[in-house]
Amino acid sequence: MLSIRNLSIDYQLPGAALSVLQNVSLDFPGGQVTALIGESGSGKTTLTGAILGLLASNARVRAGRLLWKDENLLEQTPERLRQFRWRQASVVFQAAQGAWNPSLTIGQQMLDTCADHGFPAHQPRREMLLQQVRLTPERVIAAYPHQLSGGMRQRALIAMSLMLEPELLILDEPTTALDLITQSYIFDILAEIHQSGLTMILVTHDLAAVARLADRVAVLYAGTVVEVGPAGEIFENPRHPYTQVLIRSAPDVHGGEVARGAEGLPPDLRQRPPGCIFASRCSQVIERCRAEVPPLKEGVACWHW
Ligand SMILES: Nc1ncnc2c1ncn2[C@@H]1O[C@H](COP(=O)(O)OP(=O)(O)O)[C@@H](O)[C@H]1O
Ligand code: SF4
Ligand SMILES: [Mg+2]
What residue owns the CA closest to ligand 1's atom 2? Predict the structure, then answer.
């Protein structure tokens, strides 16, 4: 449904450019949940921003194509992208970010979203969607955002994002800033929504949720895809040394010790090292790694494979 081909993006900084995505190629098959995982700063939000045409003003697309069906989104007009953002794709950001207008009721904002995009203001659909996210429609429709808890607002936002019947739902850390019980409740709801066959891109640090929800997993490290494949395989048999560390360092949901992540820091994106991007932290590094970039082949970018 969506294919990213050799996408490279920089952020311009005074006197330097930050190479934040480097030669990213990824497919997002229709009807599947693809999770993007990787530590903070690995480029997940930049990638979702590129898909939605919502990059910061200092971002420069250096190369690549972003194919929605057969249309290269990187060549579209701002008007077409605005339409794409709501009619074909829809996005839910972190709960802490103010997506709601504080002076209008939730119900009104849901209908306004439809009107703004030339879609009939469909009240039965609004109620059905609120029920789907397990909110009581009568109560929530009349409520102002501050009258709901953070978790309820985020559930209402998921309902709103589905008002225009998008084909793709992008969730960028949708449960960050919510308490644990609310997080798991929201993932239950997303699992139910997924049953309807909606294509999703899920960015989250919650690997338990990824294991539960995702069909496919793509692992990003310093702006490159180091491993991609079916979720079950990635969790059972992570091949890339970074994926191995990431999965081992996931907090144990049963309250056990948190294993330590990779030693050291990610590379300086103003000056990418010549070989494998993970070489400075990799416990399995060999000489070739420092000289040549390993290609992503059969789902893994590592000379050992
Ligand atoms: N507008 C910007 N200008 C400069 N650097 C940015 C900008 N936005 C993000 N970055 C940097 O780009 C890198 C990737 O950021 P981001 O895509 O937000 O990663 P993630 O979502 O995985 O945490 C980080 O180093 C971040 O600091
Ligand atoms: S290519 Fe080399 S440095 Fe990179 S992950 Fe594989 S073993 Fe480690
Ligand atoms: Mg992010």
Answer: 11
What's the CA-to-centroid distance between 49 and ligand 3, angstroms? 10
- Could you give the number of structural domains in the chain? 1
Please give the Cα distance from 35 to 232 (Å, whole number).
12
Amino acid at 127: E
Pocket of ligand 1 (CB under 6 A): 11, 13, 18, 20, 38, 40-46, 56, 58, 269
CATH of the domain at 247: 3.40.50.300
Q: Which atom of ligand 2 is nearest to the CA of 288?
A: 2
Counting ligand 2 atoms within 8 A of each CB, the residue from 263, 277, 285, 296 with the most, and so the one to mutate, is: 285
d(CA 234, CA 41): 21
Question: Do the domain assignments include residue 298?
Answer: no
User: Who contacts 157 (Cβ-Cβ below 8 Å, separation ≥6)?
Assistant: 92, 95, 99, 100
Confidence (pTM): 0.94
Tell me how far CA of residue 83 lies from CA of 3, 69, 79, 135, 167, in angstroms: 19, 15, 6, 28, 13
207 vs 200: CA distance, rounded Å: 16
Kindly give the distance from the C-alpha atom of residue 51 to the centroid of ligand 3, in angstroms, as a whole number.
14
Structural domain includes residue 232:
yes
Q: By residue range, what is the domain housing residue 58?
A: 2-290
**Per-residue pLDDT reduced to its tens digit, 12-52:** 999 999 999 999 999 999 999 999 999 999 999 999 999 99
Q: pLDDT tens for residues 77-129?
A: 999 998 898 889 999 988 766 789 999 999 999 999 888 888 887 889 999 99
Asked if residue 181 is part of any domain, the answer here is: yes
Cα distance between the two ends of the chain: 28
